[in-house]
Design brief:
This is DUF7044 domain-containing protein. It comes from Aromia moschata. The protein is an all-beta fold and about 110 residues long. It has one domain. Helix content is about 0%, strand content about 55%. It contains no helices and nine strands. The strands form three sheets. A five-stranded antiparallel beta sheet has the order 4-5-6-7-8, with no helix packed on it. Strands 1-9 form a two-stranded antiparallel ribbon. A two-stranded antiparallel ribbon has the order 2-3. The chain is globular. The termini are close together.
């Protein structure tokens, strides 16, 4: 099992800016359906607002998103080429009184 760790700063100022290379409209085939996912500077379709980004070598990005229902989604993007991304994600319903210093996310199997 692969585990991804996202470091979330315990502060009100989040580094939630989605990198330029990931922004735009992306087509994928997910759960047997054509899927269009759009990323702008701060949000991702059906995932919510990006609250933190971890950048590994400018080709691997791990992001933490929060939607209106306080559901957090950990998404890892691997940049294969300028036109191809690989995406892994995991959804979790969390109730947080204070933001933890380290949140553990594992991609869905």
């Amino acid at each position: 099992m692969l585990s991804i760790f996202v470091l979330v700063q315990n502060s009100l100022a989040y580094n939630g800016t989605i990198p330029m290379i990931l922004r735009g409209a992306w087509f994928s085939w997910e759960n047997g359906k054509n899927t269009l996912t759009e990323l702008d500077p701060t949000t991702m379709t059906k995932r919510g607002v990006c609250i933190d980004v971890k950048d590994d070598y400018h080709v691997n990005y791990t992001m933490l998103f929060k939607n209106e229902e306080s559901c957090y989604t950990c998404v890892k993007f691997l940049v294969r080429t300028v036109n191809v991304l690989e995406k892994m994600e995991r959804h979790q319903k969390l109730i947080l009184l204070t933001l933890p210093k380290l949140l553990r996310c594992s991609p869905m199997a």
